[in-house]
Predict the 3D structure of the following.
Amino acid sequence: MKGYAGKFLRVDLASGEVRADKLSEEVARKFLGGYGLVAWTLYNEVPDGADALSPENVLCLWTGPVAGTPVPVSSKYIMGARSPATGFIGFGIASGGIGSELKAAGWDGIVVTGKAPRPSYLYIQNDMVEVRDASRLWGKTTWETEELIRDELCDDEIRVSSIGPAGELQTCLANITNDRNRQVGRSGMGAVMGSKNLKAIAIRGTGDVEVAELDELIEFCRDLYKRCRGPATEKYRVLGTPANVLVHNRLGCLPTNNFQKGTFEDAEACSGERMLETMVKKVVACPSCPIACDHINVVRDGPWAGTVASVDYESLELLGPNCGVSDLGAITKAVELCDTLGIDTISAGVTVSWAMEAYERGLLSREDCDGLDLKFGNSEAMVEAVRRMSLREGRLGALIADGSARAAEKLGKGSEKFAMVNKKLEWGAYSLRSLQTATLGFATSVRGACYLRSGSYQVDVKGKVDRYTLDRSRGPVVTEGENLYAVIDSMIICKFTRGIYKDDDEIARVIRLVTGFDISDEEMIEIGERIHNMAKLFNVRFGASRADDYPPPRAFEEKMYDDVSDGAVIEIERYDEALSGYYESRRWSEDGIPTKALLEDLGLDTRLGV
Amino acid sequence: MQSKKIIICDTEKCTGCEICEYACSIFKEKTVNWSKSRIRHIRVEPTFDIAIACRKCEEPLCAKACPRDAVLVLEDGSVKIEPDKCNGCGWCIEACNFGALKLDWDKKRVFACDFCAEFDQPKCVEFCPYEALEFTTLDQVGHEAGKKAFKRIIEEMG
């Protein structure tokens, strides 16, 4: 079994005890790595009923077999735990150097339980593992924490994943940052770290990463690197993901003013094109990446001069057009605050837009907003709201720090109707009613409102289906996407490279060359199916049912009118039909529960099946 | 003079992908281990990247610093660390202004870039996806700079 280190760390923060555990070949073959091992760990180890922010919750970090190898964009890792935001499976995947560094240190993953008696951080240098005092890091931003740890340990090559003040405050939006600009963003994993008094994980590895067929792999990689410089990735290289702003605006699927519209009149002003021209100082890459999508903005003038942040489409869109804001300086500032104070930009943007809508509807007074004139388009108020929510500061911060679903629960007055969430997690930057296959994929995702689980928006955006309606056939589209993406997220490779592979078998070839496992593309997809079902079983164990797989009411109850759409809406009957089609293609019951027969075929625990 | 080629990094093009480090360790050490790479990527936050290998200094401080005469300066200007003489003290590493030498944690010996003498060109240059690395002489770098400046003047004069 090559590619893997073959062992992982178990850390009990309560006692400070650290020990090595074996990653068996059987588990590796069944769950591959990354997402698969998160699902496997959480399903097997999180106790029934364990509160997400209690010491009983299990926090794990996994790499996949390709981490540390020259496979394009393979230095990725995933962190998972029961999510405080959704109550279901929580996880986030990030690039940067953590994945490769941990593998070089000789570990495939880390499983953390318990709660440290005082602020602590974990330091791993090859075989040497320590739980160290983090008292002087408590309260620091993520960027400060990285630097302070490198200074303390006198090693600039240490990679650090850390939480900011929001993680310490255990807000549902809290994320984990590494290499300054890379985040385990969604589902509140930073809050779980905070609940364990774990400020950071610092890693330095200097060992060999062994692969099964090195000579053949590097020659294949040489070819893949060339493809990474070709048309399949051009969008990411030139404009980065903010290229989507004008594309989505033209298609009428650019969420605007809390998803009320799909076009934004000031889209040009905050487009990827404008950002490249006026803000981008440098384009940087993660280790092993021949694409370089990461556009670093440095604000040159105006009230936000000096601000530095890496700005991607989701962050830009949801803190920008979705809040009615087009000022790229303010958007960059808001992203910088999210990254340094430690909250997810997606949930932050959608939560601020919820508060703006509540304010404009008169459900929140100016006093409720700590004096901020929180109307759509007020860029300064947007930035200040982000700061307050990160620090749970003032009346506004206290209301919105845990996201829009919880804020709406507290406020009531019908504001639940426009909390743009699924499973209490905020929706990504794709409109609901003008991208209906995407909506099905988002709403059925195990993580909640997730654009990264199936890529189902692609058939809508590429015009392969009528995106203004739904039918039963969209179910298999989501299923197929999920199975492949589960593999990609378990290897773990960057989804931006998916277009460089000619077919699934080339992806399977990467797995073969790295691990030595003789698996076909069909077997690989079956692994993906198993992984997805394992994640789903975790959710079933925590009470998931059909009711959790719907988009917010706005999708069904309000017609959307904008420059492109003329009364777009999702018909509930059609959504139900598509949802049933999805369950059928998954071999799940009408309530969204895997059947025993399916679980048996996949070699999974059948106890929760129907 | 012509043979004294070094590895130049265009810091505008370098993205910090570290593929140079992967390629180096794979071809020179037959394993994947960027801590055994002869070229080193440095990032200065937030926006500066460079990859640095041996500069073939005219007066190599590494060779001067070695108390055991383990650092040999070869004809092409590169340095060779004699494994029998080196004891891993690291004075040469300290002396180098560029951090171009490293200590192999397993072999307990210092190692340096030999510019892939056995291949057509250094593997880091060959694999750099951004064409940020170039294997060229300082004289040629100067010539290119002069040409670029002159071309601009010509264009401006019409």
Remarks:
- The mean pLDDT of chain B is 94.
